[in-house]
Amino acid sequence: MIVSATEMLKKAVEGKYAVGQFNINNLEWTKAILLTAQENNSPVILGVSEGAGKYMTGFKTVAAMVKAMIEELNITVPVALHLDHGTYEGCYKCIEAGFSSVMFDGSHFPIEENIAKTSELVKVCHEKGLSIEAEVGSIGGEEDGVIGAGEIADPNECKKIADLGVDFLAAGIGNIHGKYPANWKGLDFDALAKTKELIGDLPLVLHGGTGIPADMIQKAISLGVAKINVNTECQLYFQEATRKYIEEGKDLEGKGFDPRKLLAPGFEAIKVIVKEKMELFGSINKA
Ligand code: G3H
Ligand code: ZN
Question: Which residues are dihydroxyacetone phosphate-binding (predicted)?
């Protein structure tokens, strides 16, 4: 069933685990993530970037696909359909399309503008039963055209945005979208702890979940992170499995060129990495 992410993340804060947000790109991605969540009795958040939404022809198509798939696959674990790094306009489109959650990424606006826009969207989302995520500071690197400088969030600004009534908050703490460079300094746990002190039990979100070492993930969860976003790692697993299939010449054997066969190893690979992340985040059997 599609639900807002509010309840599942409240439970995650209380239970000291995190729910994974896995970004989707197409039918295979969506099916692999939903089945893995169901098989492991885990709540899950399907993330849709604006670019991926466009690629899948539009947010209405995405919402219709996800809803139908949940019904036809008998998915009973809580599933949130969430706009990732949304613009102001994108949030309205997703609210209309039937998403259950949005992220308004106003991190590149001056803080007063971020506050004004976030506050308006909080009201609209809550009236319609959606959850809303906001961002302070920025996530380094690039994701689907969203480029961030990677500045560390100011805990006082986090408190200001938290007080607007957002349901969960992404704070930039040195995390980066995409692969981490060899000279990465790691997460800024002081900034995370200070933010946590000011915002209390509001769930925190860790973006750039690809490749963050397990000990850092666990420490982040102990400091209030209840949602962790993973995108690139699923793409890399899909790429590697697909490459292997082709390099082994399997696409040239019999009906190996059939897309249902060609895409199968990538599909299975996504299931493997999503399960691994659910284990690491502690969300298994928490549905
Ligand atoms: O918003 C989505 C993410 O923050 C995913 O980051 O591609 O580094 O896993 P990632
Ligand atoms: Zn992100």
Answer: 178, 208-210, 229-232
